[in-house]
Amino acid sequence: MKTIWLVVPCYNEQEVLPETSRQLRQIMEDLMEREKISRKSRIAFVNDGSRDRTWSIISQLYEENEIYVGINLAHNRGHQNALLAGLMTAKEYADAAISLDADLQDDVGVIEQFIDKFIQGKDIVYGVRSTRATDTVFKRGTAHAFYKLMKAMGADTLEDHADYRLMSKRALEGLAQFKEVNLFLRGLIPMIGYETDVVYYERHERFAGESKYPLKKMISFAVDGITSCSVKPIRMITTIGLLLFTVSVLMLVYFLIVWSFGRTVTGWTTIVVSVWGIGGLQLLALGTIGEYVGKIYMEVKERPRYIIESVLYRKGN
Ligand code: UDP
Ligand code: MG
Predict the structure, then answer these.
(1) 135 alpha carbon to ligand 2 midpoint, in Å?
(2) Residues 112-121: pLDDT tens digits?
(3) Smaller CB count within 10 Å for the chain: N or C?
(4) How many domains does the chain divide into?
(5) 91 CB under 6 A from ligand 1?
(6) Which residue's CA is minimally distant from atom 1 of ligand 1?
(7) At what angle do helices 215-229 and 137-152 cross, to 10 degrees?
(8) Structural domain containing residue 285
């Protein structure tokens, strides 16, 4: 029988944890009862440096039942790093790990389908949203624009898949070999390879509390996604630069011809417009390069992606 770990990153989730832990435990115990997963299977909550009672709730759960595991990060490192910390811990004990959000937005009813596909021999199973009906029009629009942009930029991501997925032990070992600090798991995981499959689910509303991904974080997540998966933006700068240079040469030729016919050019507007236009483009280009240079700077330092303060885990029998 396979040992499955659920990995749940939590940042200020005191409102949802009691209910989430109850539902997950019910599902896992039912699977154990039916001998689908081993009794060593666990539900691991990763506390991402929460400022509320999240960690004390997790510790209490751990005291109550050995099915719960608590992983306490030394401080807030963001969703992707917290998830990685959980997955890397799970890798040591489990045959496969399923990552899901703490707020019950990822339909826990399909957990068994993930496990079935794993038993059939798939190494990575992606949870894909069947509809986006519960999203606001704004989130739906921005999400679709994001996937389109990712595709145009040459990053290989699965549309409508967030971080609800199962990964086998060897897939996790593959992931462990990616040493980058700028984490965008969705972009990395397709690079691991192995046989994959998809489970469709409907995403619910957040059960309680509020989103930890405000617009600002969403935008920086999107920028991170593109710049850590693709160097196309830098190439585009080169193309645009070349194009502008060609245009300026053509313009020079044109103005020389006009000048040779004795007509003076009065167009000061043209000059001002192009000064602003080119100035703007240059700043944009510099900013794009800066984004990558910043990433390189962060990568060369090889700082740890997370620091685990403590792990609450009981082996059981
Ligand atoms: N999360 C985290 N660290 C953070 C932000 C979020 O571990 O810095 C967790 C959060 O507790 C939740 C998951 O990441 O389990 C997704 O966050 P949220 O539900 O707020 O995002 P949304 O569903 O609104 O995109
Ligand atoms: Mg959520």
Answers:
(1) 11
(2) 999 999 999 9
(3) C
(4) 2
(5) no
(6) 79
(7) 10
(8) 232-301
